[in-house]
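Before the break, one more example. Copy the sequence into your notebook; we will annotate it together after we see the structure.
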Amino acid sequence: RTVRGRQGLREHGTLNRIVLFAYCLFALLHLLLGVKSREVRYAFHLLPFLVLLSFVGWSILLRPLKERGRALWLFALLFLIVPASLSAVHSMAPSSNKDADARLASGAFLDQRYDPTVRILADFYAYVPPKFKNTRVEWGISGDVLLRDNPQVILVSRAMTGRWMWKAPGTSFRDGKLVTDPSYPQDQLEVRRELFDTLFRDPPGTYELVYEDDFVGIFERRALPGPEERP
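Here is what the structure looks like once it is written out:
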């Protein structure tokens, strides 16, 4: 059996198939267990390898068939891939249309309300117009970061801080109905709980909510002069 196994490894393409399968397997495990991927785009680099792997598996299944039959089945496989590819392109279309992308509406709000010198603390994936030079971007905002940076404006993004805790679907931050993702460790969830307690503490705290949509919440320091008071 050992001799046959070695001979099998020496067959044309066998080792390549093993390496391809192993790469896809370990990359997927890393995304699921390490990165805890919740965004399809995190796996985009795997798509070419998965397509190749599917063709390899398809060709192995079709080996018993005659050459004409294999060609017909491979052609049929292309018809399965094309609709999926078109669907993926269609799902990414809004990102290419910046004027209509709702995720940029918060940037327009910032542009109209604040002058370029305002101190902004923003989540990753929250859009801040380039005119705001005094901006610090964090991979998830916490209460400690607020104390350290003392920002005048805070942008909390659903795609970053919101992956731990965010407002319940169909509600406003003002309703106080926040939901958590229990797949994250409790200590990480507690950090975000403390953040929102700081932002919404009763009596009213240092910051107030001035803008929100499905993607971003913007909080402004209460002592910050309004647009009509700024020079």
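Residues 20 and 53 are 7 Å apart (CA to CA). The chain is about 45% helix and 15% strand. Try to locate both features in your own notes.
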